[in-house]
Amino acid sequence: MRRFYIFSIRPELIPLYKENPDNLYKILNGIYSMKPSELTYAYNLFNQMCSCIDTLGLNNKLYLKMHNDLVYTKIDNEHIINNLYKDEVSVLKIKKSHLVIDCNSSYSSFFNFLNNFSSNFFVCDFLKGDYFFLNDIELVIK
Predict the structure, then answer these.
(1) Predicted local confidence at residue 68, as pLDDT
(2) pLDDT at 138
(3) What is the CA radius of gyration of the chain?
(4) Contact status, residue 123 vs residue 129, Cβ threshold 8 Å
(5) Could you tell me whether strands 78-83 and 121-125 are parallel, antiparallel, or unpaired per DSSP bridges?
(6) What is the 3-state secondary structure (H, E, C) of the chain?
(7) Cβ neighbours of residue 30 under 8 Å, at least 6 residues apart?
(8) pLDDT at 93
(9) How far is CA 73 from CA 20, 26, 95, 113, in A?
(10) 1-15 pLDDT, tens per residue?
């Protein structure tokens, strides 16, 4: 099972980190692994790097696009794809600060939609040390 954290990077920082995403990953990983005593510093650093996600807009657009698919379910701010044909189970949790995708594979069908929603998304799998800008990967056609 993979857990992808997706952050909306501030547009003015994209050119700075586009060629060196490893620096951006190191900063976000540092925030992710900070001690509770450093919470104020982590919060301020995070706000300098990332912008808020329009949760209502994202929830509505995703629901409108996918609600007719048999493999899709929505419960509150959780969107679920359970596709037996592709052997994929993905759960997308939408928060104001970031998105979380729990997926049983290295690729989630949610990536296709999210790439069309914003070009500023940066994806991290902190447990596996994986990271990339979402618009840099070759998206799988449905």
Answers:
(1) 84
(2) 65
(3) 15
(4) no
(5) unpaired
(6) CEEEEEEEECHHHHHHHHCCHHHHHHHHHHHHCCCHHHHHHHHHHHHHHECCCCHHHHHHHHHHHHCCCCCEEEECCEEEEEECCCCEEEEEEECCCCEEEEECCCCCCHHHHHHHHCCCEEEEECCCCEEEEHHHCCCCCC
(7) none
(8) 96
(9) 37, 34, 18, 15
(10) 899 999 999 999 999
Low-confidence ranges of the chain (pLDDT < 50): 140-142
pTM to 2 decimals? 0.90
| Residue 30: C-alpha distances to residues 6, 27, 72, 118 (Å) | 15, 5, 34, 24
Other Cβ atoms closer than 10 A to 44: 10
Which residues lie closer than 8 Å to 87 by C-beta, 6 or more apart?
Answer: 104, 105
Domains and CATH numbers, the chain: 2-136 (3.30.310.250)
